[in-house]
Amino acid sequence: xxxxxxxxxxxxxxxxxxxxxxxxxxxxxxxxxxxxxxxxxxxxxxxxxxxxxxxxxxxxxxxxxxxxxxxxxxxxxxxxxxxxxxxxxxxxxxxxxxxxxxxxxxxxxxxxxxxxxxxxxxxxxxxxxxxxxxxxxxxxxxxxxxxxxxxxxxxxxxxxxxxxxxxxxxxxxxxxxxxxxxxxxxxxxxxxxxxxxxxxxxxxxxxxxxxxxxxxxxxxxxxxxxxxxxxxxxxxxx
Length: 238
Description:
This protein is an alpha/beta fold.
């Protein structure tokens, strides 16, 4: 079997006396959509920050395609193809949608022509919004733009931190479809509270509880796992 694209081994992070991640082991395969779920306070966002390089780990090791990236900073990991989006929208009110994308493409040393910008926006459903300011976008469109910015560098693995947070009933299916279209193009580690969307999208699911992965595998197997039912999903989810 081919080695995973991303391998995390024994990752730990402590803030004072609080142990937030506690020996996390996680594998993400090339081209798959791998979901990470768990209750509030489980350590999901902290783990994403450790994987992306935003936060250094206190212990453990991280490998990208067999290369040890444990001590690499965030920008160096991004150059190797590991990028992330954020749980809270981080856009600039002074820039148009097209300017955001052009900036992201330039930073990634990609083509920044008008057609390249337009193509990058089309793939996340923002065709025709090039001249709009970000304050003119709906919340769902802002989230879509953030996903598009993360994809601007043609990453090998993108970490999506709750891309459906705050989306309405009309916007969630569109975001679900966009994420699904990434399958095979790049690997996705999806952190998401919308469990229904997770089980529709994911090739594999890992469950984080109290800072540790308690189950990992195909969605149907994870949904039936007694430990997951007891700790997170509840008996009605089986």
